[in-house]
Write a structure and sequence with these properties.
binds flavin-adenine dinucleotide; 495 residues; globular; alpha/beta; five-stranded parallel beta sheet
């Protein structure tokens, strides 16, 4: 995933086309996703004249098809799981609903809620752009050389937009397999699931990366029978191995079928269902199939290479750590760069591009400070160096892992699955990373993110008060356990 090229920027001037005193810089952004609109806001704040050309609507995939809708769906899935597992906490559901396991989502209503939230969020962004004096041109943009963008609107009209700085933030789209063509009804990409009115009886999810695992977790909680087809030994192959093991155990314990080492060769529609054929000849039948096999960048037909912008062999735009491409004055941010496909990273790359091109203070992107979450149930949140990097010798660190089973609050809440891990430098005890597997781990990772970003030591982390009882108490406890180990370069590397 990491595709930050030092070389790209090495030949570039310190900023874009050096601003002349008294001239207003013209910035044209292609794409109004997180990468594009956050950049536009920074550019406007720095006094540039900003135009954003966008094809699908403010907010881009993050708002219209990816993060916002999926996390809204997951919010309902979480509520159902809490309800379903509430018996242990002494809750009786009553005569009307004797079988708690029988709860199912009203998918039609849920999807209406999703679409309403998406529309509202996109409208909020449109308003914000307009309030800051940013011009939004609905249409398709392409480069005509490095200093001109041509926007084509729905009625076919063309507008030429001269630019001192161009930001390409066109995102990515779901990858489809040659023998698994989505039909929007039974064979679906993650962008198409929100048109479903009825819950799939049996959903086959192809792909067990972050997107596949999140949807498998959510639909299983909503009431679908789920089969997760994973081409690797375990689900979430790129995540912390201990965390992925917890998730796979929870999936199977709750009744999901996980098919490991099973690669889908094709998916076809048969009557009212689908048939997924695996490369070893086995077939898996279902009512619906969700394809979650990665993304491809939206970089075709944009005039990039003609403008001097180098693409890698997969079509991603090559950028350096301040978002410069190989063409002077042309920057790129977000999924179209493939650096790290997260909304937060897209936004930061976009902001960095503007700070750099418009001559403001800027620190290059540091991927080792990024916190990220897999929104399965429980969630996996990570920041900094990974266990794999440490195990493979890429980072010198001491590690500790504490299961949540020993945490008082976890016991009260009936939380059995999960753990916290903290990694620190031997000798200095500086925190370099961590993993949290827990309900709402996305909210618990922030103290570790602060520690990693500001190079706090395990002692500083441990000495800040935590509430008793709280899950965050386990973070302080883990840091406390590293006190001596962190201080001694010769101590054992795992506590
Ligand atoms: C299911 C799913 C869930 C996710 N959940 C999360 C999450 O919870 N947290 C997180 O951090 N990340 C999440 N991500 C990743 C996140 O969605 C992306 O990293 C983020 O959307 C990237 O933003 P972007 O600005 O690069 O591109 P996009 O958001 O894709 O925006 C690109 C914009 O460019 C427009 N465009 C494309 N080509 C042209 C053109 N030629 N002319 C004009 N406009 C054009 C598109 O219409 C779009 O509006 C998720 C991804 C998926 C698939």
């Amino acid at each position: 995933m990491t595709r930050v090229s030092e070389e790209t920027g090495g030949n570039q001037p310190t900023s874009a086309r050096t601003p002349q005193w008294g001239t207003v810089m013209r910035v044209v952004v292609i794409g109004a996703g997180l990468g594009g609109y956050e950049a536009a806001l920074v550019a406007a704040q720095l006094g540039a004249e900003v135009t954003v050309v966008d094809r699908d609507g403010p907010g881009g995939s993050a708002v219209l098809t990816d993060c916002v809708p999926s996390k809204t769906l997951i919010a309902t899935a979480e509520a159902i799981t809490d309800f379903r597992e509430s018996g242990e906490l002494g809750i009786r559901i009553g005569e009307a609903m004797p079988e708690v396991g029988g709860i199912r989502a009203d998918l039609g209503k849920l999807n209406e809620r999703v679409k309403g939230l998406v529309r509202a969020q996109s409208a909020d962004i449109a308003q914000k752009l307009s309030r800051e004096g940013i011009r939004l041109v609905p249409g398709v943009g392409r480069l005509d050389g490095p200093d001109r963008v041509v926007a084509t609107t729905a009625d076919g009209a063309e507008e030429v937009l001269p630019a001192d700085v161009v930001l390409v933030a066109t995102g990515a789209q779901p990858r489809v397999l040659p023998d698994a063509r989505p039909d929007g009804e039974r064979i679906l990409t993650w962008e198409q699931v929100y048109d479903l009115r009825e819950l799939p009886e049996r959903l086959v999810v192809v792909g067990s990366g972050v997107t596949g695992a999140e949807f498998a977790s959510a639909y299983h909680a909503l009431g679908s029978d789920v089969v997760l087809v994973s081409s690797r030994d375990r689900v979430l192959p790129s995540e912390d191995a201990d965390a992925a093991t917890v998730i796979e155990d929870v999936f199977t314990r709750r009744g999901m079928t996980v098919l490991g080492r099973s690669r889908a060769a094709g998916v076809e529609r048969r009557g009212d269902g689908v048939v997924v054929t695996l490369t070893d000849g086995r077939v898996v039948e279902g009512s619906h199939c969700l394809l979650a096999v990665g993304s491809v960048p939206n970089t075709e037909g944009l005039g990039l290479e003609e403008a001097g912008v180098r693409l890698d062999k997969s079509g991603f735009v090559e950028v350096d750590r301040v978002s410069r491409t190989t063409a002077r004055g042309v920057y790129a941010a977000g999924d179209c760069t493939g650096v790290l496909m997260l909304a937060s990273v897209a936004a930061m790359q976009g902001r960095i591009a503007m700070w750099h091109s418009l001559g403001d203070a800027v620190a290059p992107l540091d991927l080792h400070t990024v916190s990220a979450t897999v929104f399965t149930d429980p969630e996996i949140a990570t920041v900094g160096w990974s266990q794999t990097e440490i195990d493979e010798g890429g980072a010198n660190a001491v590690t500790v892992k504490l299961p949540l089973a020993g945490n008082a609050r976890a016991k009260m809440q009936g939380v059995r699955d999960g753990f916290v891990k903290v990694f620190c430098r031997p000798g200095t005890g500086i925190v370099v990373g961590g993993v949290v597997v827990a309900p709402r781990a996305s909210e618990l990772i922030h103290p570790l993110a602060l520690a990693v970003t500001h190079r706090l030591t395990v002692d500083q982390l441990a000495n800040a008060f935590t509430v008793y009882p709280s899950l965050s108490g386990s973070l302080a406890e883990a840091a406390r356990r590293l006190h001596r180990r962190g201080a001694s370069p010769d101590a054992p590397r795992t506590v």
